[in-house]
Amino acid sequence: MVVAYEAAGRLRALSDPQRDSHSPRFAHRADRVAFAARTGTTADHPYAIEVTELASGRRRRLTSPPPGEADEDPRWSFDDAWISFRRVSLKAPERATVWLVPTEGGAERPLPLPATDVRWSP
Q1: What pLDDT digit, counting tens, does each position of 71-106 carry?
Q2: Is the N or C terminus of the chain more exposed, i.e. has fewer CB atoms within 10 Å?
Q3: DSSP string, 62-116
Q4: Quick check: helix, strand or coil at residue 7?
């Protein structure tokens, strides 16, 4: 579960406590957090990238991996407009590919270069 401490010192859940989640990354403006979250409640469900807005607590899914694949390791672009992530085959995790998705929602798309990881730079 992804959690944060509020300014008052109170613990707040940012992900669904009923589903496993990991790899939280805060936006550069610190107004949102992206993370990988299970798409269901059991271990056979893959992970997708979700974002939670800190002010409202609104949570939304950004990616929808196809069967047999999972999305992981979200990273914000320097302007917080995009998130890169790795799409991993559950049967061959060494063959991961890098994908991009707009943070406001929209179609996810593969990076047009062969890569297994990415770092953003302004």
Answers
A1: 999 999 999 999 999 999 988 888 889 999 999 989
A2: C
A3: ---PPTTEEEEEEEE-TTSSEEEEEEEESS-GGG-EEEEEETT----EE-SS--S
A4: coil
Q: Which of 43, 45, 47 is nearest to 21 (CA)?
A: 47
Q: Tell me, what's the pLDDT at 9? A: 87
Could you tell me the end-to-end alpha-carbon distance of the chain, in angstroms, rounded to an integer?
31
Q: How many helices (H) and strands (E) does the chain have?
A: 0, 10
Model pTM?
A: 0.91
- Cβ atoms of 70 and 45 closer than 8 Å: no
Structure tokens at 121: 């730079």
